[in-house]
Amino acid sequence: MTSERFLAFAVAVETAAPGRTGLLGRLGRPVEMVTVEPPAAPAPTTLFRPSGSAPRAALLALHGLAQQGRADPRLVALGRNLAAAGMLVIVPEVASWKALRIQPDDAATVGRLLSSARDLAGPDLPLSAAGFSYTAAPLLVAAARDAGATRLDTIYSVGGPYDLRDLISFALTGVCEESGVRRTMTPDPWVRRIALDLISSRLDPSQAGRLEALERETDPVRAIDRVRALDNALLVELWRLSPASVIPDIPGRVVVTHTTTDRIVPFTESLRLHRALKSRGPVRHLPIPAREHMVIGGIGAFRAVWALSADLIQRRRTRTLTVSR
Question: From 12's CA, which of 202, 209, 270, 301 has a CA 20 to 30 Å away?
């Protein structure tokens, strides 16, 4: 095992089982956390960075729809442990995502966060970006619309969707599809509630009966037809926020990783995203055998974080060798 891969292993062990081995403490660097507030950044932002030495690469990490926002213990652990491995990790907090709301301008919001991350990282530090769950979608859309995003070393889609309209359909009916094959599973009640809240927030009281009919619908095609009849503009907005709408324009290298039995964003979404991206440029697919959507501990977290950190840290070594030649 190379030293970079062993360091990534230590990051994964510490994230999955904090304090159990002390391995990262022996191999890594001391870490400091710094908070940046508006107007110095477009959103409140936490920086995790190695203390007393310059970082070798930077990662913008976008929290998903999560009430804890940047204080989500999964992101805090990942940020701290990657910083111990020599990275600058930039974690902004978006109020609407913290309130569990999807907004039509989310891709524009991510565009501003990308610009801020470039400023915080500086012109010479290689910068990657990771979107977790829903936020992987506006990240890929923002990168496609922003010519400066070609400066991103890698974009990571971690448990993210391919087409948000199909994610809504899955949340309502439990049916997902890939390569013409339908699969059925019970969606997590959380994602079903997010989908229904998103739809109902745009309706007036006179449409309550049609919303109840939508809640009872089990066929994915009819479910989308019912949403279209209620608010077609919502489906248009979701399409514009979907990576499926901008595949040819997504720049650079993309890594798609996803747990294989996810009941919030089905694994079929990453299969479709990976297949579409292959025709566009360099892409890597990292399936994670785990049940959770966003793993926080145990073997699922170990596998997920090792895959992500190994890619990040080994990419850092590849860049260093390329520059030195």
Answer: 270
